[in-house]
From TrEMBL:
This is RND transporter. The keyword Metal-binding does not apply. It comes from Acinetobacter terrae. It comes from the Bacteria. It holds the Pfam family AdeT1_2. The keyword Ion transport does not apply. Residues 1-22 form the signal peptide. Keywords: Signal. InterPro entries: AdeT1/2, TRAP_DctP_sf.
Amino acid sequence: MKKGFLILSALATLITSNILHAKADVCVFDLLGKSGESYKLIEEWALASKNWGTDVNLIAYQDEAKVEQDFKAGKCDAFYMTSMRARAYNKFAGSIDAIGGVPTNDIAQKSISYVLDKRNEKRLINTMGKETFEVAGIGQIGSAYIFVRDKSINSLARAEGKKFAVLHYDYAQKIMVTRIGAVPVMSEISNFIKKFNQAEVDIVAAPAYAFKPLEIYKGLGTQGAMINFPVVNVTADLIIRKNKFPEGFGMQSRSWFVKQLPKSFAMVKRMEAEIPAKYRMNLSKEDQVKYQKILREGRIDLTKQGIYDQTMMTVLKKARCTVERTNFECSLSGE
């Protein structure tokens, strides 16, 4: 009798343990693999996940297309990759990366905190077909700046006809490049810097995160420059299959990500500061306004096409105009 009771107790403990600690495979994209800052962030998150009832197994990828392929094939219960590619699973969160929508790190931090706030919980859950996906976190990668192989490309007019590497799956990039008169060259996130360094393209947009590891300075040589004007804020989304994680997991995870933001932005600012001053080139005030107008027109067009989320565009405009009230767009409607 006592032996039977012990066996039942052991079984009950095992069942309870399995319920409390779900197993989940999470596919993580980082250009630098396990040595990258994005992967390290998700390693910390995986440790914290044990407190929310999940044992996470991380799978590192340096090819973002492969992450999406394996997620669709059911090999991952969740993924962490750039919002540009993750936007298909949640347009609201993915629209933080709207071209020209987030011009400073301060606005970026406020925007990410807003999106992950519990008031937006319903917007972060999306059903596609028979599956329900949830945004469980957003990580900051950094503002993307334009790098040119020749510093004579110092105005919009001089970008005309130049080859500009764009990520083939992000329609927004193609729109921006076409609007400035440059020639979009379809690329993957795994090879767009390589094309710049090997002179296959004249221009590329990338965050400071990529500068040293991907050796952008090789493409810059002695004649190149970084245009000191952010064109897009790059983030990464953690998307989970809701039914593979315990109830309430997403909310706890998002709260954890918000707490990491100060550290993440400190890292981004450090990386930006490490880019040598000799490469930095400022646009004239006139060209800055021209860029802002082109990016604004592009955002409005892409929102009408359903690529960006209208609510998010309104939020981002309010954030920009809170910081810079005299900006020309603040008196205009449309966003």
